[in-house]
Specification:
Shape: globular
CATH architecture: Roll
CATH class: Alpha Beta
Number of helices: 3
Distance between the termini: 19 Å
Structural class: alpha+beta
Number of strands: 6
CATH superfamily: Hotdog Thioesterase
Low-confidence stretches: none
Amino acid sequence: MEEQLYFSLEDFNTMSKSTLIENLDIFFTQQGEDFLKAEMPVNDKTIQPFKILHGGANLALAETVGGALSVMVTNPQEYTVKGMEINANHVRSVPHGNRVVATATFLHRGKNSHIVQIAIRDKEENLVSISRLTNFIQRMENSHEA
């Protein structure tokens, strides 16, 4: 059975206007039934003083694509998605002038929570950062059980 996707790449990129997502130049690039990808440049907006990708920018990218993955498969008429917890390990630095790609996939997809893994890689496919995000899936008060 094919999974219903409630939001497209175009939807996510449009919704990102005038947000942190747009300010960091994060752009959604690819989606499937159980994954979502976004990319971000390593530029003056995302580096730290030593001219390498800032770990906080990695976390912003990870939470963005990981949260969007849950939103993508959750009926917005019945539920809201809220990030509860995120952790990360940064394993490789990326210098200014490069680009990173984040791929979010489900580790757990329950009724009330999703656990999403987000792998951030450089252009050579080297792992840069690995994160795990827990999203709370909350039924809206005005929705009804089907």
